[in-house]
Design goal:
Layout lengths: L1 H16 L10 E7 L4 E8 L11 E7 L4 H16 L6 E6 L4 H7 L1 H18 L2 E10 L1 H12 L4 E7 L5 H13 L9 E9 H5 L2 H13 L5 E11 L3 H13 L1 H18 L4 H13 L3 H16 L6 H16 L1
Parallel strand pairs: 3-4, 3-5, 5-6, 6-7, 7-8
Antiparallel strand pairs: 1-2, 2-4
Length: 328
C-alpha cells in the first residue's frame, strides 16, 4: 500500500508541477451575502478551462479550508492532473472561507446550512452543475464533510474525509452514522477515508478513525466505501495523497466507462486483436455487467485462437487466465 501511495504522490507532484500549464483557472474569490451567518462570506471558484466546450452539467467539488493556500493548492493540483488523464469528469471547485474555522467546523450545523442554503443555490444559479455534490475536508474539515454526507446524502453524495477528527461533541459522529445505517438506510454514494500514522496529530486520531470504519463495515447500507492507511504520512502531509486518491475513488465508475469507450474505438481499428476484448471485459466486470463481460471474454478467447503471433504455451496461459475471469 505504501508503494502505491508513493507512486501516486510522485504522479501528483513531479509530473504535475513540471507542467507549464494548467487545465483549471486560478481560484476566483466571490462574495456571498449569507442569510445564515447574516454577514458577507467569501468562497473561491475554480473552473476547468474547457468549461464551455462540454455542455453537460458539471460535477461540483466543495472543500472547506478554502482560505488555506496549501489545502487549495493540493486539491486544485490533484483535480487538474486527474482531469488531464480522464480519471475524473469535468468539475467545478468551490472553496469555503472561514471566519472562525474551528467553531464553524466543529459546531457544524450553521456551516452546513450555509452550504445548503447559500453556497449551493448560488453556484447552481451561476453554473450548470449536477445535483449530487462531492464534499471534501481534512482534520476538523474531515469531521464536517462526513457529517454533511450522513445528514444530506441526496445532495452530498460523495465524501472525501482525510485524517478526520471524530472526537468532537462527545464523538457524536458515531451516533449519527449508526442512526443513518440499518435495513431502512437510504445512504448511497461514495465515501473515502484516509489517515496517516506518523506524529501525534494523526496517531491520536487513529482509534476513533478505525472505530468509525468498523461501524461502516458492519452496517447494512449501499455506500461504496473505502479507506486507506497512509503509512509514513502525518496529519499535514496526508492530504497530499489523500485528496487525489479520494477523487479517483469517487469517480472510479467514470474511469471504467472511459476504458470501455477507449477499447471499443480500438476494436474498430483492430477488430482481430484479442486483448482489446479482454480489457473491455475487465471494465464491464468491474461495473458488475457480468453477462456483457463474459460475452467479451468469449470473443477474446476466439480471437486468441486465431492469433499466430502468440506461442502455443503462451496461448494456454492466457486461455486459463480468461477462463478464470469468466468463472469469478
Amino acid at each position: 500500500m505504501k508503494l502505491i501511495v508513493s507512486i501516486f504522490l510522485l504522479f501528483l507532484t513531479t509530473n504535475s508541477f513540471c507542467q507549464s500549464h494548467s487545465f483549471y483557472s486560478k481560484p476566483d474569490t466571490l462574495i456571498i451575502k449569507s442569510k445564515i451567518f447574516d454577514t458577507e462570506r467569501k468562497i473561491t471558484v475554480s473552473l476547468p478551462l474547457d468549461y464551455e466546450k462540454i455542455k453537460e452539467p458539471k460535477n461540483l467539488i466543495v472543500y472547506v479550508d478554502g482560505d488555506n493556500e496549501e489545502i487549495t493548492g493540493t486539491i486544485l493540483q490533484a483535480t487538474n492532473n486527474l482531469y488531464l488523464y480522464d480519471d475524473i469528469p469535468q468539475s467545478i471547485l468551490v472553496g469555503i472561507f472561514h471566519q472562525d474555522r474551528n467553531e464553524e467546523l466543529v459546531e457544524k450545523k450553521k456551516l452546513f446550512k450555509f452550504l445548503d442554503s447559500d453556497v449551493i443555490p448560488m453556484i447552481a444559479n451561476k453554473y450548470n452543475i449536477k445535483k449530487k455534490i462531492t464534499i471534501v475536508g481534512h482534520s476538523f474539515g474531515g469531521y464536517f464533510s462526513t457529517y454533511c454526507f450522513l445528514k444530506n446524502n441526496t445532495v452530498f453524495n460523495n465524501c472525501i474525509s482525510i485524517s478526520p477528527a471524530y472526537w468532537p461533541n462527545d464523538s457524536d459522529i458515531y451516533d449519527i452514522v449508526k442512526k443513518e445505517l440499518g435495513k431502512e438506510s437510504k445512504l448511497t454514494g461514495n465515501l473515502y477515508l484516509a489517515i496517516g500514522d506518523k506524529r501525534w496529530d494523526d496517531i491520536s486520531l487513529r482509534e476513533d478513525f478505525f472505530k468509525f470504519t468498523t461501524i461502516l463495515e458492519k452496517g447494512d447500507n449501499n455506500i461504496n466505501f473505502q479507506y486507506n492507511d497512509l503509512v509514513g504520512f502525518n496529519h499535514n502531509s496526508s492530504p497530499t495523497v489523500g485528496f487525489g486518491l479520494g477523487l479517483n475513488f469517487c469517480f472510479d465508475q467514470l474511469e471504467w466507462n472511459s476504458v470501455i469507450i477507449d477499447q471499443n474505438n480500438r476494436i474498430k481499428s483492430f477488430p482481430d486483436f484479442w486483448q482489446h476484448y479482454e480489457l473491455k471485459a475487465d471494465a464491464l466486470k468491474h461495473l458488475e455487467k457480468y453477462k456483457e463481460a463474459n460475452e467479451a471474454y468469449k470473443v477474446a478467447l476466439n480471437k486468441l485462437k486465431l492469433d499466430k503471433e502468440v506461442s502455443v504455451s503462451d496461448k494456454e496461459k492466457i486461455e486459463n487466465r480468461l477462463q478464470k475471469k469468466m468463472k469469478k
